[in-house]
Amino acid sequence: MVADPAVLYSPAAQSAAPSPSREQRSSEKLLAVDNVSLEYRTPERVVRATHRVSFDVHAADRFVLLGPSGCGKSTLLKAVAGFIPPVEGEIRIDGRRVAQPGPDRIVVFQEFDQLPPWKTVKQNVMFPLLASRTLGRKEAAERALHYLGKVGLAKFAEVHPHQLSGGMKQRVAIARALAMQPRVLLMDEPFAALDALTRRKMQQELLELWDEVRFTLLFVTHSIEEALVVGNRIALLSPHPGRMRAEVNSHGFTLASVGGAEFQGTAQRIHDMLFEEEAVA
Ligand code: ADP
Ligand code: MG
């Protein structure tokens, strides 16, 4: 393989065994996903969605979970959000085990209908702040307007979601999530239902927003290109059940790199790693 200083591959196997130093360093990690297996149980059968997945997310990371459809990305995100308990392993935020949902972890989903249609844009952004008793009404309104400004929607504060395009609705969902100032922002294919041009624009805006706010992001996608653009670190997950295949350092790529030789080469190598035969792994 050609030496490529911008892209460091670390096979997952290398970090699979816990080492003594791992616990000592745990305080530096914002989010630790430690040997996590997740399952769905129905009366007829048990579906294992992920198998012993481990990764650490540090403050201000843009950490991407990348893998084919059905490999357990959404399930992992739901587990981090606190909706699904691991059957094996542990998830920790700031060293504390995740046992339930909390305002320190907010999810932005793919669907455009995640905003209650009877609330105005501003009321939508205020709602979690009020429901969680994070702020009083006046402060919540101020913070809502602040974050709506950050996503370019200050002028739309008083309209209802049905008057907005899909991209604008996703901006509101992002503003609503950021207004909660979560420890980690969770995004599950947030741009997948948008047209290609809007999707590209939203990726750019997300990066600009990150430059400004420096939030910590855990982002799920099945698009290699999107992973390279959005992420600074990418976890590659194998097909069903999802296992860690490798971690890729992608901080050197931006939207401007798309289409360039280095970008294409890395995308190809990721593709090969994602889809190589199990026997090779
Ligand atoms: P991804 O987001 O990577 O496409 P998911 O996390 O949605 O994958 O799903 C992982 C696996 O778990 C898939 O095989 C899927 O069919 C299964 N699964 C997802 N949700 C459920 C559920 N509610 N009940 C049973 N199986 C499920
Ligand atoms: Mg999914």
Task: Describe, in plain words, how this protein is organized in 3D.
- By secondary structure, the protein is an alpha/beta fold.
- It has two domains: 23-104 and 184-281, 3-Layer(aba) Sandwich (Rossmann fold); 116-181, no CATH class.
- Helices cover 33% and strands 23% of the residues.
- The chain contains eight helices and eleven strands.
- The chain has a seven-stranded mixed sheet with strand order 1-11-10-4-9-8-7, with helices on both faces.
- Helix 3 crosses helix 4 (137-150).
- 40% of the residues are buried.
- Adenosine-5'-diphosphate binds next to strand 3 and helix 2.
Describe what is shown at a glance.
By secondary structure, the chain is of the alpha/beta class. It is 33% helix and 23% strand.
Low-confidence stretches: 1-8, 11-27
In percent, how much strand structure appears in the residues?
Answer: 15-25%
Structural class: alpha/beta
Q: Helix count, per DSSP?
A: 8
Notable characteristics:
binds adenosine-5'-diphosphate; single chain; binds magnesium ion; 11 strands; 2 domains; 281 residues; four-stranded antiparallel beta sheet; globular; alpha/beta; Rossmann fold; disordered N terminus; seven-stranded mixed beta sheet; 8 helices; 23% strand
SSE blueprint:
Elements: E1 9-11, H1 20-24, E2 31-41, E3 46-57, E4 62-66, H2 73-81, E5 88-93, E6 96-97, E7 105-108, H3 121-131, H4 137-150, H5 166-179, E8 184-188, H6 196-213, E9 217-221, H7 224-230, E10 233-237, E11 244-249, H8 261-275
The chain binds adenosine-5'-diphosphate and magnesium ion.
